[in-house]
Amino acid sequence: MTKYREILRLYSQRISGRSISVSCGCSRNTVTKVISRAKELNISWPLEADVTDADLQTRLFPQASRQSAQRKLPDAEHLHRELMKSNVTLKLLWTEYCEDCRMSGEMPLMYSQFCFHFQKFSEKKRASMHIQRKPAEQIEVDWAGKTASIVDRDTGEIFPAYIFVGVLSYSQYAFVEATLSQNLESWIGVHVNMYRYFGGSTKILVPDNLKTGVEKADWYTPTINRTYHEMSEHYTTAVIPARVRKPKDYRQKYVIGKSQPENIIDTAFGLRKVS
């Protein structure tokens, strides 16, 4: 949905139309149309706190609001289930939704409105709690995403590459390395390289319940692989696996390729130096 409130607020601060369009993610024509219509109706900033963008749309463009009300709303529950599948995006689901509307002779929502309705559903569907972290307290580790590939330039042979990611929970500073195997030797090796890269170890190491590191997954008494346990003793850290099927209890989202913070606070507070 167009950010009518934000457009009027920025315009009241004498921000240019070009800058408003960039900030609000809409075209300059939309900004001009909203401002002109608001002047005609003597609507200006500041607005009452309970006036929403939907209310402003109804007041500024009542005909467009009626047309939107006649459009078919997406099945948010279906979208939520489909997004859990691999390689499914909201853009793909919108394309399928538009095709279904055309088949049934109904008017579909524009992509922005489609995303707006799903976002409102998601806010009610998924509740989450921020978990406070301490500097240098823990590192979260796992094999990330899908298997990548390495191509031999001489022979053209393709080898699978497995991406290991270790993230300091407080600063989100990350170590990423690709290996040709997910065996125990590779698992221990990437941990050694990770500690060398970070320049120290943390009090807690949080892996997912993969067989390489955790032989028996259990919330109360998980069985840690013996070699993995010996490695944790060497680096004076405690291995505490994430709860079975509930990795978000410990884990925060991390996207490979995200820029690293310049001020690595974890490193400044308590990382134990390792040899």
Spans of at least 5 consecutive residues whose pLDDT stays below 50 are 217-221, 250-265
Kindly state the percentage of residues in helix.
40-55%
* Beginning-to-end CA distance, first to last residue: 55 Å
The name CATH uses for the topology of the largest domain is Nucleotidyltransferase, domain 5
Multimeric state: single chain
Q: Strand share of the residues?
A: 5-15%
Put simply, the count of helices is: 11
What does the largest sheet look like? 6 strands, mixed
Global geometry: elongated
Mean pLDDT, all residues: 79
SS elements, strand count: 8
Outline the structure in words:
With 275 residues, the protein is of the alpha/beta class. It has 3 domains: 1-70; 73-127, no CATH class; 138-268, Nucleotidyltransferase, domain 5 (2-Layer Sandwich). The chain is built from 11 helices and 8 strands. The strands form 2 sheets. Strands 1, 2, 3, 4, 5 and 8 form a 6-stranded mixed β-sheet that branches. Strand 3 (158-168) and strand 4 (174-179) form a beta hairpin. Helix 1 packs across helix 3 and helix 6 (76-82) packs across helix 8. The longest helix is centred in the middle third of the chain and has 15 residues, at 90-104.
